[in-house]
Amino acid sequence: MARTYPLQKTRNIGIIAHIDAGKTTVTERILFYTGKKHKLGEVDEGTADMDWMEQERERGITITSAATTCYWKDYCINIIDTPGHVDFTAEVERSLRVLDGAIGVFCAVGGVEPQSETVWHQADRYKIPRIAFVNKMDRIGANFYRVIEMMEEHLNTKALPIQLPIGVEERFNGVVDLIEQEALYWHGEDLGQTYYKAEIPDNMLNEVAEYRAELLEAIAAEDEVLLEKYLEGGEIVQSDIHRALRTATLKGIVTPVLCGAALKNMGVQRLLDAVVEYLPAPIDVPPISGIVPKMEIKDIREPKDDGPFSALAFKVASDPNVDKLVFVRIYSGTLNRGEVIYNATRAISERVTRIFQMHANKRRTQNEAYAGDIVALVGLKDTTTGDTLTDKDHPIILESMKFPQPVIFVAIEPRAESERDKLEDALRILMNEDPTFTVATDEDSGQRIIYGMGELHLEILTDRMTREFKVNARVSKPHVSYKETIRKSGIASGKYIRKTDEISLYGDVTIQLEPLPKVEHLPPSGIPQGGTGEDGSNGFQFVNRTKEENVPARYVPAIERGIIGAMANGVLGGYQMQNIKATLIGGSFHETDSSEVAFEAAASIAFENAAKECEPVLLEPIMKAQIIVPREHIGNVIGDLNSRRAQIHYVESRGATEVIDIEVPLAGMFKYATDLRSMTQGRGTYTMEFARYDEVPDNARDEVLDRRWMY
Questions:
Q1: Residues forming a β-bridge with 208
Q2: In the chain, what is the greatest distance between 2 CA atoms, to the nearest angstrom?
Q3: pLDDT at 405 over 80
Q4: How far apart are CA 390 and CA 653, in angstroms?
Q5: DSSP letter, residue 554
Q6: Which residues of 250-272 are buried (b: 16+ CB within 10 A; e: fewer)?
Q7: Among the listed ranges 52-66, 268-282, 692-706, which one has the minimum average pLDDT value?
């Protein structure tokens, strides 16, 4: 069966925002107005289609990215609704990796908030064209023009209004379209399904003329026809503006900005018009590039149905009915149900037994999928996030994804030994789903330790273990995930010699350690993976500079394994070490007594000896945070922040409230929400996200090391 919609009429978009900007409400209105659903869903009532998990509906927040497909004016729009909470930033990262365009949703009151910046800069990395929607124009304190200023100040973009609000706060009742030069008002009685056009209010004519002139000036250079008319004072028609604005948007020169109030059903249809008018089709973005395995040469894949098949697996989800769903973006070629495809990342072949078009947790079976499609596949038992799927005769490995390091951990153990296998199964499945969730075993206590991005992240995961996997487990209080590294270079040796009646072992290794630049994003496992790469981009670099007569090449992989194993338990407090280059510079071996086991042990000893001479330091996660409090409580809150080792960047007045922008160690922010409510009579709020790892000050280091692993 041929494709239903041509590529030029396909849009793959994400909806990104700070938590509480109204992102999921916007998505629900999009689904309603496109006919995907026939009843409005509300986040607060737990009836939003895209927030389908029990935990999402109970908390009123998006936790996992959800995909759907809808249709608007002969266009097919594939949408991924992403979380706005910082603990789930990996969901945003992997979604943006496979999207062509995005809608940034901003609260008209809060404007550009911390997570707004984070997700916007994530989209910058992938060079994704965006449009913006200033939502909640009906809220007290709404200020469209201030949001525009904040976008330009904080997001490094030319925010270009193509609409202006009519009225503000409770008086907001429509918008002026700067391109069509008319006012639009929505009917309330039909849930905003229709709107009518009218003359621009007289008191806005001058303002509209000013902003329209700014619009034309910003985009005129992108279109020869428009530029000529603009310079010569000719008649400019709407098609000229649309064409030039599309070009400027696709180039990333401007971000068109619209406004509305999704909860009051105003403005969403024109947002959909902007999606199809200004955001790219798969053929509008550069062909995807990758590396041909074994040949190590670059190649590209163009978005053509008759090209060699290539796709990227960007998400894995467990499903009780089909075991495992693998979400993929198809970049080229056609995929048929029952076809055997090649996982170029893992060099294995797997059969696709079913193809689904997804709508949140609902699915519709289809027999084929084409270039530009986002679908879920069944049957890929060994495929995981970041893998490239291809035609075996034309393999290519596309760029994968990198995720932030976990910054917090808890200990977890089953309440009954009989449930240990069930717990291990749950941990394995959740790790396969979530690249920022990692599991380790404490060597001292034997406890399982789970790492995540924040308290809410681990709370959701442990709740899922109970509900979905029926695991009855004990969980410790949260602890900070400290790291260790070194400040300077050093050289040391390690020997492993063992003689018994049954066995003789000999290994001798000399290594040099050097500090590497900071790496804040590690591979999906969250810990250094080793490898002989020269850039150290995974937090660890290993180089062999010794001679064959000193250490035979067959023992070198074991030496690298020994170093990586030693890095898992640092020399200060037993924390994971990172950002280290290890160079094998010497050693010796015995013709009969040497073995991989001996050299792995010798390397571990050498690493520990060298690390102690390299000024080891303790690292802690530093968080960016914004605290919003009533003005009368500012003194108490700032005094409390100082006691938490916070660095205050600025304090900004915003109406009757004060916004405090800080960086603070995560260790000082556990249960901060409770303390903040107490200091502000329940009126203070805050948001927080990971910034980087920094050295722990000397006056705090001893305290951290003294209480290590105390549960």
A1: none
A2: 101
A3: no
A4: 54
A5: G
A6: beebbbbbbbbbbbbbbbbbbbb
A7: 52-66
Pick from 654, 629, 631, 684: nearest CA to 147: 654
Tokens 């590294």, residue located: 485
Residues forming beta bridges with residue 310, ordered by sequence position: 332, 390
Take residue 144 and report the two structure tokens written for it.
């469209």
Is CATH 3.90.1200.10 the classification given to domain 403-481? no
Q: Are 193 and 186 in contact (CB under 8 A)?
A: no
Return the structure tokens found at 476: 């410790």
pTM of the model: 0.76
Rounded distance between C-alpha atoms, residue 124 and residue 116, angstroms: 12
Percent of the chain with pLDDT over 90: 56
> CATH number of the domain at 484-614, please?
3.30.230.10
Q: How far apart are CA 367 and CA 142, in angstroms?
A: 48
Are 114 and 85 contacting, i.e. CB atoms less than 8 angstroms apart? no
Tokens of residue 75, six digits: 């266009």
Sign of torsion over alpha carbons 181, 187, 188, 192: negative
Whether residue 481 is predicted with pLDDT greater than 80 in this model: the reply is yes
Q: How far apart are CA 683 and CA 177, in angstroms?
A: 37
pLDDT recorded at residue 520: 55
Lowest mean pLDDT among 348-352, 426-430, 596-600: 426-430
Task: Identify the pLDDT of residue 62.
Answer: 67
Portions of the chain given CATH number 3.30.70.870 = 403-481
Q: How far is CA 414 from the centre of its chain?
A: 31
Residue 74 tokens read as 């002969």
Q: What tokens were used for 469?
A: 């996997």
Q: Which of 335, 334, 315 is nearest to 325 (CA)?
A: 315
Rounded to whole angstroms, what are the CA distances from 105 to 24, 73, 112, 705?
10, 22, 10, 43
Pairing of strands 504-515, 490-499: antiparallel
Dump pLDDT digits (tens) for 507-560. Answer: 999 999 999 987 555 443 344 444 434 444 458 999 999 999 999 999 999 999
CA–CA distance, 413 with 406 (Å, rounded to integer): 20
Average pLDDT score, the chain: 88
Q: How far is CA 222 from CA 77, 129, 130, 163, 280, in A?
A: 26, 15, 17, 20, 16
Beta-carbon contacts of residue 286 (< 8 Å; ≥ 6 apart): none
DSSP state, 61?
A: S
Instruction: Select from 3.40.47.10, 2.60.120.290, 1.10.3720.10, 3.40.50.300 the CATH code of 7-198+253-284.
Output: 3.40.50.300
- Mean pLDDT on 165-181: 95
For residue 185, is it left (φ>0), alpha (ψ between -120 and 50) or beta? beta
**What is the helix (H) or strand (E) element at residue 327, kind and residue range?**
strand 323-332
CA distance 352 to 331: 17
CATH class of segment(s) 620-706: alpha beta
d(CA 183, CA 163): 9
**Angle formed at CA 628 by CA 623 and CA 631, multiple of 5 degrees:** 135
